[in-house]
Design brief:
8-stranded parallel barrel; binds phosphoenolpyruvate; binds manganese (II) ion; TIM Barrel; 13 helices; Chorismate Mutase Domain, subunit A; 371 residues
Length: 371
């Protein structure tokens, strides 16, 4: 294991000789579960930090909310037994105080907590003058300013090494990812704060163990400074995030593929196609969602036009729409012809929906401008 001093200076530079590796179960469940996991992780010789959630923020009451403070003692025993540095999530001033009391090596601020600036400020002030490492997960919403702002609060408080964790973003419709990666956001954060280490959390992005290796590799390809991966001795029996945790064996073979330097080492393109296609599939779903909503609005507009005796085709309005989308397409680098043709198609469909709307079948409605 690299010693903590080397790790923090490697993280301070924003890039270590190899990426920083954080692994462990989603939640600390028992001393035995922690020891079994940590022993397997330490045996790979590649893991720097052991993670385990002690206080678990859950969507619904009644779910397993973590073992609480007593599990901090279990984590200290893990450090003693394996030499791995230890970290957990904190979400309140009390959590921070307890983590400091138990001399944890690092803490992280979870995606739900980071969205609350008053709370983040309180946490930062509680940490003032300490040297514990702080990792700031991205907020649930894809809001780069909010993420950067929280990081800034910890930096301004003058805490120990601050880094960021990219764990994907809440997505409002069904997706192949649990949390959509929107890679441009962590890339934007890196541009804004070039010295900030950014760690990828493929477990919470994927939400299922099968996709974790693809996302881990993609994160590293995109220049992330480390990985945080959930590992459980019996993933199916885990008390939280059962679907996304890797078994110690699956974790070891992933590490061998990523950093093995042997015949198991991954080529640049391994799994990339699958991951990119998963991203494309999500975008296609967004396109269909957006088109369906646009057409529903067209139906409602038809009703309003019918009641106000307004012609279906309003040339001025259409010119405005085209002007707006063409300006946007120039900014985004899309070919103007492509956008023009696409919107002509969309417009044709919208007019045909409006013509077919029951409101327009009523007598006395003017169809003169419909094409
Ligand atoms: C976790 O790391 O287990 C966790 C709850 O993370 P997030 O805040 O990203 O949901
Ligand atoms: Mn988890």
């Amino acid at each position: 294991m690299r010693n903590l001093q080397n790790k923090s200076s490697a993280m301070a530079k924003g890039r270590s000789s190899r990426p920083l590796l954080i692994a462990g179960p989603c939640s600390a469940e028992s001393p035995r579960q922690l020891l079994e996991t940590a022993t397997a992780l330490a045996a790979t010789g590649k893991v720097d930090y052991f993670r385990a959630g002690v206080w678990k923020p859950r969507t619904s009451p009644g779910s397993f909310e973590g073992m609480g403070s007593k599990a901090l003692g279990w984590l200290k025993e893990i450090r003693q037994a394996t030499g791995l540095a230890i970290c957990t999530e904190v979400a309140s001033v009390k959590h921070v105080e307890e983590a400091l009391l138990h001399d944890l090596d690092m803490i992280w601020i979870g995606a739900r907590t980071v969205s609350n600036p008053f709370l983040v400020q309180e946490l930062a002030e509680t940490l003032k003058g300490t040297t514990i490492g702080v990792m700031v997960k991205n907020p649930m919403a894809p809001d780069l300013d909010l993420w950067a702002g929280s990081i800034e609060r910890f930096r301004q408080a003058g805490v120990g090494q601050v880094s960021a964790i990219h764990r994907g973003f809440f997505y409002w419709t069904k997706s192949l990812f649990r949390n959509h990666p929107w890679w441009h956001i962590p890339s934007g954060l890196k541009k804004r704060m070039p010295d900030l280490p950014v760690i990828c959390d493929p477990s919470h992005i994927a939400g299922n163990s099968k996709m974790v290796p693809l996302i881990a590799r993609r994160g590293l390809e995109l220049g992330m400074d480390g990985l945080m991966i959930e590992v459980h001795p019996e993933p199916a029996r885990a008390l939280s995030d059962a679907r996304q945790q890797l078994s110690p064996g699956a974790f070891a073979s992933l590490i061998l593929q990523l950093f093995g330097g042997q015949e198991g080492e991954a080529t640049h393109y391994d799994g990339m196609l699958e991951e990119l296609r998963a991203e494309v599939d999500v975008i296609d779903q967004v396109l269909v969602w957006a088109l369906s909503n646009r057409m529903k609005l067209a139906g409602e507009i038809a009703g309003v036009k019918a009641h106000t005796h307004t012609g279906i085709l309003q040339t001025n309005r259409w010119e405005q729409v085209i002007e707006g989308v063409m300006a946007k397409s120039r900014e985004s680098g899309l070919r103007p012809d492509f956008i023009r043709n696409l919107f002509d198609q969309i417009h044709r469909e919208s007019l045909s929906i409006q013509k077919g709307s029951p409101e327009n079948k009523k007598p006395g409605i003017c169809h003169t401008f419909a094409i």
